[in-house]
What does this fold into?
Amino acid sequence: MTVELTKDALRLDTVWPQADYERYQREIEAKRSWGYYQRIIIEDAAGKRLETPGPHQCLGVIRALDRHGFPAGMAGKTVLDIGCNAGFYSTVAKLRGASSVVGLDSQEHYIAQALLIKQILGTDIDFRIADGHTLEGNVGPFDIVINTGIIYHLQNPMDFLAKMAKITREFMYLETEALTNPALTEYAWFIEHAYGEDVSNWWIYGPRCVERMTRAAGFARCEFQGYVWTPPPGDKTKEGYDRQGRAAFACWK
It folds into this structure.
């Protein structure tokens, strides 16, 4: 069985037996109460579809990330997807030729979702429960690290980035919430309470601040790839804060 990443779905070249299709539907639905984040669409050769009910539109986001430096060719590379959630970007790495992929997430229910997606697609990906703050010598090193949507959730981002630098051989792709005001590009905003109704949001960084942080953490070079997304003018969170954007960075050892 092979899997192709298309504009509309992760498409299989085989047809699911009806019993398997119905079982996959039940298993996706059974995990709904845990909370999905990644919306992953899978389609078999007959056009039958499975879809996880998360708000993060993975197929649209990967096209945006590709325009902002996400690795297109990973042939023969070892890859770590840190904070892998339900495993979409781990899957993309495998489909782009990675020799091995490890997906880590600290939340057990996301790893359970990732293992289900792995089962449906038949991909060879090693998903594990782990926290990036506690990684020492027990994983890696990896040629490529995918680091999306993490560092603004961390109280101590420099500790985390230093650990990523130690286990990265070649390249880290980093994506994060980012300040959009050019006057604040070298600064970081510490959030005391909630931002976007999420109390796990702690920091929002200016692009030059992120570049400096990654270099201080142990990467030789970091380049801002641009804003993956910016809010409409005047858009605010429910807390009354100006909503910020999302930015991508290419980091080399």
Q: What stands out?
A: Helices lie at 18-30, 58-66, 88-95, 108-121, 157-167, 207-217. The mean pLDDT is 96.
